[in-house]
């Protein structure tokens, strides 16, 4: 047996050497016991020997297990992480407590976590058939009769239908994958049809076909879209036409007073682009209707504002007689269905703008009641100019402007005593002895109407 000091010198010994020495010790111990004489004549001694051997074997096994556990415990508690190695303390080391450096893997696999996470993973697959939409297509068509960039839907699109067979995969209740196995169309889609405008002209004036447009200058309506085409009509500035078609960006087809023809697009605008056009158009239509043969047994169509504009600031109205009575002319125009401008033109002509003696003294602008013999003495006298204006209007309506039996004011009917027609020339026949009276009166009418255009 080695001495005590050498027996415990473990500085250069490995764990396997220790186990081997333990095994040799056990074998030596069994060999020594085998050389001793055995007394087997008694059952008691045999039992003792067998029991003794079992005890020794168990003791050795226990010793080995205890020793292994001590080494394992010391291993786990003595590791200190330093850079990429650990320091191991062993009870078999000598008093100097030498250390052994062992390299370890920083990225060790955690087997427990891997097993736990995979054990909890639940994957479920199912096959289903469901109905899905088939998106409709949109068909676009360029249209020169629409403003550029504008879109008009002619037909709404409708999605089709299809049956889809598919497999869905779920992990822990959440959809993780979807695989389509088959698709079968059941209803075809209806395409959406859209017109897209290309006209820069319509985009510029912000208009469409069938809209009302206005002339920016006097123009000629032609039979075809060409400068040398046959002339259909003359159209004055500010008058309106209805847009019918747009064969090109330079020419458009229009309707003017139920007559169709072609105009250059360069002479047209809209109320959207030029807001003042509708009012100018209204005035122009009133002025255009002015004619020596126009009927006078109807309202002029002018507004109170129009009458004010016409009679305010007249240079020849020195005493402001007409300016002060513009509202009287307007009211009579509407009440008695007589053109108020025609009535004012008679007053201007007969009173020399209100400067005559009869007008000044008797507030009679028409010389009403006077005759060639003693006109001043025979003329009517009124308290106000308005009284004289109204009386003359009633007489013209009842005796000069309307056929006999025509319903006029206050439930009366026209007597037509001096009726020859409803124009200024017709009135001249029985109203004045001067054959040129109608020309003079009409010239004043023109002058007054033209003031609307200012």
Please specify the SSE layout and strand pairing.
Blueprint: H1 4-7, H2 15-35, H3 43-77, E1 81-82, E2 85-88, E3 100-103, H4 111-120, E4 123-134, E5 138-147, E6 151-155, E7 160-171, E8 174-187, E9 192-199, H5 200-205, E10 212-215, E11 219-222, E12 231-235, E13 240-245, E14 251-256, E15 259-264, E16 268-269, H6 277-289, H7 304-311, H8 321-324, H9 326-335, H10 340-351, H11 357-362, H12 375-378, H13 385-401, H14 424-431, H15 437-450
Helix pairs in contact: 2-3, 7-9, 9-10, 10-15, 14-15
Give a written overview of the molecule:
- By secondary structure, the protein is an alpha+beta fold.
- It has four domains: 4-95, no CATH class; 122-195, Resuscitation-promoting factor rpfb fold (Single Sheet); 206-281, SH3 Domains (SH3 type barrels, Roll); 290-453, Orthogonal Bundle (Lysozyme).
- Helix content is 38%, strand content 23%.
- It contains 15 helices and 16 strands.
- The protein has helices spanning 4-7, 15-35, 43-77, 111-120, 200-205, 277-289, 304-311, 321-324, 326-335, 340-351, 357-362, 375-378, 385-401, 424-431, 437-450; strands at 81-82, 85-88, 100-103, 123-134, 138-147, 151-155, 160-171, 174-187, 192-199, 212-215, 219-222, 231-235, 240-245, 251-256, 259-264, 268-269.
- It has a five-stranded antiparallel sheet, with helices on one face. The protein has a three-stranded antiparallel sheet with strand order 1-2-3, with helices on one face. Strands 4-7-8 form a three-stranded antiparallel sheet, with no helix packed on it.
- Strand 11 (219-222) and strand 12 (231-235) form a beta hairpin.
- The radius of gyration is 62 Å and the shape is rod-shaped.
- Residues 1-11, 38-52 and 76-105 have low confidence and may be disordered.
């Amino acid at each position: 047996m080695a001495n005590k000091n050498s027996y415990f010198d473990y500085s250069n010994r490995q764990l396997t050497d220790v186990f081997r020495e333990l095994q040799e010790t056990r074998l030596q111990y069994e060999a020594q016991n085998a050389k001793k004489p055995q007394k087997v004549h008694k059952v008691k001694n045999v039992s003792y020997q067998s029991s003794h051997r079992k005890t020794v074997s168990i003791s050795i096994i226990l010793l080995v297990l205890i020793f292994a556990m001590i080494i394992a415990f010391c291993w786990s508690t003595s590791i200190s992480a330093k850079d990429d190695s650990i320091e191991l303390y062993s009870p078999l080391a000598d008093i100097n407590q030498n250390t052994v450096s062992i390299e370890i893997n920083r990225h060790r696999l955690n087997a427990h976590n891997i097993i736990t996470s995979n054990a909890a993973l639940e994957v479920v697959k199912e096959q289903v058939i469901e109905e899905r939409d088939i998106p409709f297509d949109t068909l676009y068509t360029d249209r020169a009769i629409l403003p550029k960039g504008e879109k008009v839907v002619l037909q709404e699109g409708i999605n089709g239908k299809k049956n889809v067979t598919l497999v869905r995969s779920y992990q822990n209740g959440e959809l993780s994958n979807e695989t389509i196995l088959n698709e079968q169309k059941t209803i075809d889609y209806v395409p959406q049809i859209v017109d897209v405008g290309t006209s820069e002209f319509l985009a510029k004036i912000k208009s469409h076909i069938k809209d009302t447009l206005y002339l920016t200058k006097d123009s000629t309506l032609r039979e075809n879209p060409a400068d040398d085409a046959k002339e259909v009509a003359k159209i004055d500035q500010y008058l309106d036409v209805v847009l019918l078609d747009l064969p090109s960006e330079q020419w458009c087809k229009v309707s003017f007073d139920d007559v169709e023809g072609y105009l250059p697009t360069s002479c047209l605008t809209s109320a959207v682009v030029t807001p003042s056009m509708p009012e100018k158009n209204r005035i122009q239509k009133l002025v255009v209707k002015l004619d020596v043969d126009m009927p006078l047994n109807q309202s002029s169509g002018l507004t109170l504002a129009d009458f004010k504009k016409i009679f305010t600031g007249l240079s020849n109205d020195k005493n402001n007689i007409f300016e002060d009575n513009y509202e009287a002319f307007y009211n009579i125009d509407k009440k008695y269905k007589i053109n108020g401008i025609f009535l004012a033109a008679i007053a201007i002509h007969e009173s020399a703008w209100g400067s005559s003696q009869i007008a000044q003294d008797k507030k009679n602008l028409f010389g009403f009641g006077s005759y060639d013999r003693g006109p001043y003495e025979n003329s009517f006298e009124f308290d106000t100019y308005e009284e004289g204006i109204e009386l003359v209007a009633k007489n013209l309506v009842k005796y000069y402007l309307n056929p006999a039996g025509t319903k006029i004011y206050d439930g009366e009917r026209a007597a037509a005593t001096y009726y020859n027609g409803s124009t200024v020339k017709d009135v001249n026949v029985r109203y004045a002895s001067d054959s040129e009276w109608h020309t003079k009166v009409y010239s004043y009418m023109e002058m007054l109407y033209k003031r609307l255009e200012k």
